[in-house]
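Pilot study result, target chain (281 residues):
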Amino acid sequence: MKISIIGLGLIGGSIARRLRGFHECRIAAYNRTEEILRLAEQDGVIDEAFSNPGDAMDGADLIILCLYPQLNVDMVKNNISRIKKGAVITDVSGVKTFMVRELKKILPEGIDFIGAHPMAGREVGGYKSSTDTLFNNASFLITPTKDNKPENIALVREMAEYIGCKHIVATTPEEHDEIIAYTSQLMHVVAVALCDNPMIERSTFFSAGSLRDCTRVAKINEVMWSELFVENKDALVKRIREMEASLEKMAVAVENGDRNELENIMRHACAQKLKWLEEKA
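Predicted structure:
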């Protein structure tokens, strides 16, 4: 089996590190920078390095797209003649409706795209931050459609398990985007908003850790996340409006000196958090 990884960043590099031995595969990779390709070869992470994505995709049985969503689409569109019939394509993008919609316009019959999203990451990106333990016990979301062949869905599931993921969850592209808008994208919106407040400039010695915790993901790749926000704008705007409503409810209670209402809100929120923790255990 030939597996082609398009993009050797944090996620692509970490996948490549764990794929050795999967179906006795030969791992080919494309990356924009020659230095990273050479380094991955030296590390024994990949078997073949290509500075042209079409060469990496040529003859591949499984293609894993590990770039930003629009770049992923462009890579497939510009190299469609190099992708063999029967190939399976998957990705690691944080938006799924966009990917399924755009690739459906491009792919001919006989090439299966199965959207995927490993729920793992680090605060630092790039191949040099990749690790063979990144996906240990992580969730792996897949968004198959009625057009996908069962054996191809099974292959993507098997790959997810092989790289260390513990929970493989199948969902629709639409549900994926609705929930990820809350669990991931809204968290980045909140962190950015907190750091966009000039109060942070006066707060150096005024926090015991909560400010650091709440703003952890404000150390952000603005190019990638702005793209993800816009490609999932309908779901994300809903989540932002819901957050605004929750904040307004608390602001009114504080303004009115209504401790009973504040206690009710906090009690409910605490119960919800504990329930969520139990379900994750």
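One observation from the pilot: The longest helix spans residues 173-195. A full batch analysis is planned for the follow-on phase.
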